[in-house]
Amino acid sequence: MDAVTITPTPVNEPVGSFAPGSPERARLQAKLTELGSTPTEIHHVIGGQHRRSSGRPVNVVQPHRHAAVLGTFTFKPTTTRQRAAASSRSGSPARTRRIRASPSDREGPR
């Protein structure tokens, strides 16, 4: 059998039980309530710059509860697409690295 059958212990963060009544669960529920009560304005990042468009606002909602709005962003497809296309043609640092990389490096991990 080639599969790993023993799940390794996570080392990047503490493991909590999140059982009812536990402090981990209380902290998690408090944070979820906080995030749900203060919607965030989400900006477009184009060419490394945060930009706002004057398009129509779109709500970002919880996947299991669509009435709970987590944030909003503006949607103006033409302007945003034009800026993104112009940014990619302008020689952004990421694009420049991709162009200078060898073809095998551009493909990414296998």
Could you characterize what this model shows?
- With about 110 residues, the chain is an alpha+beta fold.
- The protein has a domain at about 40-95.
- The chain has four helices and five strands.
- The strands form two sheets. It has a three-stranded mixed β-sheet.
- A hairpin with a 2-residue loop joins strand 4 (about 55-60) and strand 5 (about 65-75).
- It is extended, with a radius of gyration of 21 Å.
- About 0% of the residues are buried.
Précis, in short:
By secondary structure, the chain is α+β, with helices and mostly antiparallel strands.
If strands are numbered along the chain, what order do they take across the biggest sheet? 1-5-4
Q: Percentage of helical residues? A: 25-40%
Overall geometry comes to extended
**Largest sheet: number of strands, sense, barrel closure:** 3 strands, mixed
- Alpha-beta content class: alpha+beta
Distance between the termini: 22 Å
Supply database-style keywords.
110 residues; alpha+beta; two-stranded antiparallel sheet
Chart the SSEs and their pairings.
Blueprint: H1 23-37, E1 40-41, E2 44-46, E3 49-51, E4 56-62, E5 65-75, H2 77-89, H3 93-100, H4 103-106
Parallel strand pairs: 1-5
Antiparallel strand pairs: 2-3, 4-5
